[in-house]
Amino acid sequence: MYKASLTSKGQLTIPKEIRDFLELDTGDEVVFTVTDIDNKTIFFEKVEKKELCPACNGTGEFIENNLPCFLCDQAKYITKDKQIINPQLLYTLAKNKVTLTMKTQEPVSGKGIKMYEIPRITLSSIVYPETVLNKIQDLLQMELLKEYSPKNLYNPLDVFDSNLNNILELFITQKGKEEVKAWFWGTKRKNI
């Protein structure tokens, strides 16, 4: 059990252990819910930041294919703060007969093992068409790029064309490649 004292301004400081447990940062919101009026008991939880699912555009399905969206699990929204590849996504993929393969290294004949700075993912399915898989694979790859990029690579001003070409090889769709180019080059050109 953790305790906090009420300040003269009517505020409470949430103990550090609780903030760490809930992964609360400055500006995060929490919701308070009365759970027992008689015992004056409340429950509070972090409000997850949500955004429309980029795979299905908030419809919960791939309308043109009449298939459920496996990125948001038909919820129409994804949690913004979560790592995109998480246990919930892996469960949803399996439930929808989609396989995710992630490579962090690859054997090179006669030279040992080549390590990748950014994991490379591949989606496959006997249910979903390749167009849907490619689109979502690029979305997931972009999130991995944001998460795993070395800081000098993540800063658009420090990206060299040779590095960018290596990054572009991770993407399948032209839209994904254009988004990556805009991400790096767009900021670079604005600052020149």
TrEMBL record:
Gene3D superfamilies: 2.10.260.10. The keyword Transcription does not apply. InterPro entries: SpoVT-AbrB_dom (IPR007159), SpoVT-AbrB_sf (IPR037914). It holds the Pfam family MazE_antitoxin. Keywords: DNA-binding, Plasmid. SUPFAM superfamilies: AbrB/MazE/MraZ-like. GO terms for molecular function: DNA binding. Residues 1-48 form the SpoVT-AbrB domain. This is AbrB/MazE/SpoVT family DNA-binding domain-containing protein.
